Amino acid sequence: MPPKDTPLQDYCDQEPLLTSQLDASKFRRRNSVLKCVVVVLFLSCLALSIYVAVLRTGYKDQGNGKPGSGSKDVCMSSACVSLAGHMVSALNKSVDPCDDFYEYACGGWRASHIATQSTLKVSPLTVMTARNNERLQSLLTSPGSAEENSTAIAKLKLLYASCMDTQSMDQVGPMAVRDLIQLVNQSDFNVTRAYLTLAQTTIDHLPFFTMTPMPDEKNTSRRLVHFKQADLGLDVSLYNRNDSDSRVSKYKTYMRSTLSLLDDRSMPAEYYGNLTEAVYGFEKQIAAFMLSREEQLNPNTTYNLMSIDSLAGFSPAFDFVELLSSMVESNRSAIINGSTEVIVESPEYMANISQLILAARGEDNGTAILNYMVWAFVRDLLPYMGVSFRAVAEAYRSSSLLSERCVVLANKLMDDAVGRLFVDHYLADGIKQEGIEMVEYMKINFKVSVETLAWMDDATKKLTKEKADYLIPLIGYSKDIVNNTWLDMTYQDYNITDCFLCNYLSIGANQRTLVMDRLHKPVRRDTWFLSTDTANAAYLPALNIMQVPAGILQSPVYLKDSPLAVKYGSLGSVLGRELMHGFDNTGSQFDKDGNLRSWWPQNVRKAFNNRTRCIARQYSDYTADGQRVDGNLTLGENIADHGGMRVAFHTYRAQSQVQQDTTAPLPGLQHMTNDQLFFLSYAQFYCSNSLKQYEQALLLNDEHAPDRIRVLGTLSTSQPFVDAWKCGSGSRMNRANKCPLW
User: Fold this and answer.
1) In degrees, to the nearest 5, what angle opens at C-alpha 302 toward C-alphas 741 and 644?
2) Is the per-residue pLDDT at 640 higher than 80?
3) What are the structural domain ranges in the chain?
4) Are 625 and 692 in contact (CB under 8 A)?
5) Residue 726 backbone zone (phi > 0: left; psi -120 to 50: alpha; other: beta)
6) Beta pairing class for 538-540 and 209-216
7) What is the CATH number of domain 176-397?
8) Is 576 within 8 Å of 144 (Cβ atoms)?
9) What is the mean pLDDT of the chain?
10) pLDDT of residue 333
């Protein structure tokens, strides 16, 4: 990692980092110095312009809490100026913050960040993701530095180079995939053998269902294979539309063009039109059987423990013993038999799929089934199957740059190696420990708030606090990836060639073996399931862990020297939200060990549910683009938003006293109170723009409310927010019914 001195020194050291790795000549060093001089001049001008603007316009102190200025000098370091510039430019000061705080906090940002057909949505997280990918593109094409003396990193760079080599792709074409398709078609319409042919080369792109060893939610000391419904090519809701919907007609064109290119014969256009209708019709029937997103989020709905014999009893189209025993290492296959236990997300779905397959096999000897399986496998691989297939893929959707796609794929296939590169170059010193400490402070404040709950008895309070204590925060990265020996052993069986599609399939086979082998290994609570460079965070209830990767520990979510109020408003709220997912409508059903059981008494659960219904009703009253928000679908995220913001605020307040925060105020914001800065930082994390069609699809299937609603819904029910911004009774940002929960 680069050394950390002063903020300005950091900027100058990091910006030309890749250039100095590529060439250490005097010219390059001189060029880096000139870059730093330009940066210094730019930041100085920016700081001056912000300061002058403040002198001209000023800010009124609109809230309680310690003022951000007073006798302190304004912070004029490059980090402070950059952060202040970001926050001030995002504002729309013509809006009353007590009328619409989202527009006040984000109006300027939204005016300068427009969603496109290729991006669909733009937000701080998508901006961070794009920046992370750009950084990785540079790292993947540069010679390795001394600390990267690793065969895994060398293989990673070869893999990325093969993905960028379109000339070789065009020469090889779909050959590697054609061999697989031939095997599928030679399976004598045995759907189990056809599925195995595909499943043994990939962990995704599978038809019908996925099967993955995961912790048993009611006994997390062991793993069981989970059967879950597979993804489809379209959003489930679109299969009820006809061809008049452009998304459906475009998808069918995509399917028809692909199926015709895969066929060596030269058949009439009518043939491929009929073939497309048959495959699409088959896929549409599958969509009708699928669980809704709300049903998928209910752990009691999706936990169905049974033997393989029981599964086969209502889903006879597949030989599940053969499927699993073929996927597990040969020396373990004897363990798989009819009495082996598995967890089925939806028995009804598996039964319906089986009936559909058996009926289709009788109608056309299984042709539609096999064509659908091939389509499900190849539909996302087209850009890497040669020039003709790439043209079809680009006609279907606005493709990102090849370099961007190749970073994503390199991450998918060798995520630990990518994570190592990212951490070495772009993770601030000390953030891992700082993040862990912030979570521990929040646990303390959460436990204090639990003691005040009138709806929870003392015994349940004790259990709830124990669960908070037992939560493990995994911050930044796994300790394994910075160990060259471990990293090289992880990828020792990877043989990278010039053929990217060959690499993709061979690595997929290796990953499938490793994933299935976990079935017999102990469950580790420190196992990472997010890629290190991911600009997001997550909570896993079955292990009671949160993961906050290095990818989100970047500006503007995290700046090492930012004021405490800003740090807790942004990063603190992210950490708080993941903590509180352990106590939302789903997470609260899992005990401290991650076991799904009734660990709260019935009367406490009833009191909790009564309060969550208030939150569900609140969000169901909101509309976006003329559609109502589904307060039940988004309930878990809304509970976590409310609780996470609250615990972050009270922790920031407590730490301000403990640490005697003396951080100088930010230029352009020095007349805001620290409490106001906290809420401003919180709201600006959610600044975003989306295409209308994309937003409407999310309203139907996404467990997150629209970003604007997340801010308005959370802050309008927060008394500290109301006090900070002095929002009077009756104002839109001061709801009468505040739905208190945590």
Assistant:
1) 25
2) yes
3) 176-397
4) yes
5) left
6) unpaired
7) 1.10.1380.10
8) no
9) 87
10) 60
